[in-house]
Amino acid sequence: MAGALPPLTTIVAEPWADFGLIDSGHGRKYERYGAVRVVRPEPQAMWAPASDNWDPDATFVPGSDEEGGGRWIQHRPVPSDWPLSRDRVRFHASLTPFRHLGFFPDMAPQWDWMRARIGQGPADEAEVLNLFGYTGVGSLLLSETGARVVHVDASKKSVEGGRANAALSGLAERPIRWIVDDAAKFTAREVRRGRRYDGILLDPPKFGRGPEGELWRLEEHLPLLLADCRRLLDERSRFLVLTVYAVRMSALAIGELVRQVAAGLGGTVECGEMAVREEARGLLLPTAIFARWSR
Q1: Closest of 169, 179, 177, 170 to residue 149, by C-alpha
Q2: Would the pTM of this model clear 0.85, i.e. be above it?
Q3: What percentage of the chain exceeds 90 in pLDDT?
């Protein structure tokens, strides 16, 4: 059917030296981050684990509220932070109050895909916008190719973490603009300035607030933000990547949204699920949905 989306695609994050999903099941996942092993809640791990002999250094115990609260229980002392690496980029991991470790390892295939598209042209002429960029691992991997990067996050602490990761990686002098701002407001200003980008990555939360209390609701504000992102792309642009961790939203829904936004740019749109491969059995643990456009 004309205009229909292609079949859904599954993008799989494979284990690497400093990260692996060791095992999963009974609503939990057992992971390694360098030498540190942790157990975290995972509602989608509805199956039985491969082993009952998990031996984590720390376990996250969720709170009773719906806002993601909870606490870490350390079974053995864990450093306040410790270094990990992906390719030639180094970054800090830590037991954050938000149950994750300061970065999202399932993004690795997306990082690799964007790096490949930057490599299709002169990398030092490419400029990439990373919205909701968090602690900057993706920004550093994109910058390491030679591209210029604009990194935007509403959290001053996250942006400071990105700068610290840049220093750890020896990339502090790279052309990366570290910006503390509301993603939607910044993008709208870039449109008014007549700016353009070769690639855009956005990983918006389901709900959030900007540095001045700006309210963000994914279902309400995402279409408007994507429309502004489209105005920053042109016939020379190379990609747009959208990842969503809100489980109530469909990959088909965001795929169609990106397809309509990218109309007139040519190229292709794909959408589907992101997953991490378990080391124990090779099964796939779903983590997020995505939609992306490329030329």
Answers
A1: 177
A2: yes
A3: 85
